[in-house]
Amino acid sequence: MTWLVTGGAGYIGAHIVSAMRETGEEVVVLDDLSSGDRQRIPGVPFVTGSVLDADLVARTVADHGVHGVVHVAAKKQVEESVRRPLYYYRENVEGLRTLLEAATGAGVGSLIFSSSAAVYGAPDVDVVHEDTDCRPVNPYGTTKLVGERMVEEVATATGLRYVNLRYFNVAGSVDPALTDRGVSNLVPMVFQQLEHKRPPRIFGDDYATPDGTCIRDFIHVGDVASAHVAAARALDEGGVDALTANIGRGEGVSVREMVATIREVTGTADSEWAEPTIEPRRTGDPARVVASADAIRAALGWRARYGVRDMVESAWAGWTSR
């Protein structure tokens, strides 16, 4: 039996592919390489293309004996989604619709969907549980929430078994070759500034938080990957049929605190030029989003293993090895 991983040549996708292969799973990757890199996944059967191509999805399922799909492929930049909402609806919503239609039509019985903490929007709670009201504040979050609903309703109609995993803020690397090469996430964004001896940028310091900056639940990409392995195993063994769960550590870290940790790890803590500058808030950024991971622990026996410093040190090792 084989798992199809869409977006498997990307930063998160490649970590998932690596973790699944380490546990003996057969994997095939479908990726349009718009942000992925095939060199991240050597030796893995690879199909170049988009999930918007229904015929390609159906052929891939048939040719590789696919029984389950891990759907990671998506556009994920909040700020871009605000500027280009229709693009995000096409890529994230229509892409998933096309994938579901082709996959279920070809007999695929299991799906793991990469969702996001962005579905919650700006919750007025200290810790977010899966039953917290979902009120996205940007198009990206809306597309992920629509995706979850689509998966659930297709499951009701077809018997598809599924796990929706809501990622919180992913960082770090298990292998320098798999590191995040983009600069849309906080950690690599700060790395890029420091590498060029420019001050890190903090977007807004007037939020209703202890130090005025946004608070997030940072989760190591290796933990995200292990959660997918646990979900795949549970679906294969009949341990779950329908699950929506957060992937987080349950600990909030402010942007200012995270920048301070990055400066310590990179050796720039005492450099005056590396003092962060404050810029206006970005549209669509909530003040605080921290996960409860009780549901995934109870259903899959999963828990996060890595801390914040692990994330930063491993990410820096990958960044400097480029």
Largest sheet: 7 strands, parallel
| Overall 3D form | globular
**How does CATH name the architecture of the largest domain?**
3-Layer(aba) Sandwich
Which fold does the CATH topology of the largest domain refer to?
Rossmann fold
Q: Strand arrangement, largest sheet?
A: 3-2-1-4-5-6-11
Work out the count of structural domains. Answer: 2
Helix content: 40-55%
What is the strand content? 15-25%
CATH superfamily of the largest domain: NAD(P)-binding Rossmann-like Domain
Question: Can you tell me about this structure?
Answer:
The structure is a single chain. The protein has 10 helices and 14 strands. The chain is globular and about 60 Å long. The longest helix is centred in the first third of the chain and has 21 residues, at 85-105. It starts with a strand and ends with a helix. The protein has a 7-stranded parallel beta sheet, sandwiched between helices. A 3-stranded mixed beta sheet has the order 12-9-14. Helix 5 links the parallel strand 5 (110-116) and strand 6. Helix 2 packs parallel to helix 4 (85-105) and helix 6 (186-195) packs across helix 8. The protein is an alpha/beta fold and 322 residues long. The protein has helices at 11-22, 54-64, 78-83, 85-105, 139-158, 186-195, 221-237, 255-266, 294-300, 308-320; strands spanning 2-6, 26-31, 46-48, 66-71, 110-116, 161-167, 169-171, 201-203, 215-216, 218-220, 242-247, 253-254, 277-279, 288-289. The protein folds into 2 domains: 2-170 and 219-247, Rossmann fold; 171-216 and 250-290 and 305-321, Alpha-Beta Complex (UDP-galactose 4-epimerase, domain 1), CATH 3.90.25.10. 40% of the residues lie in helices and 18% in strands.
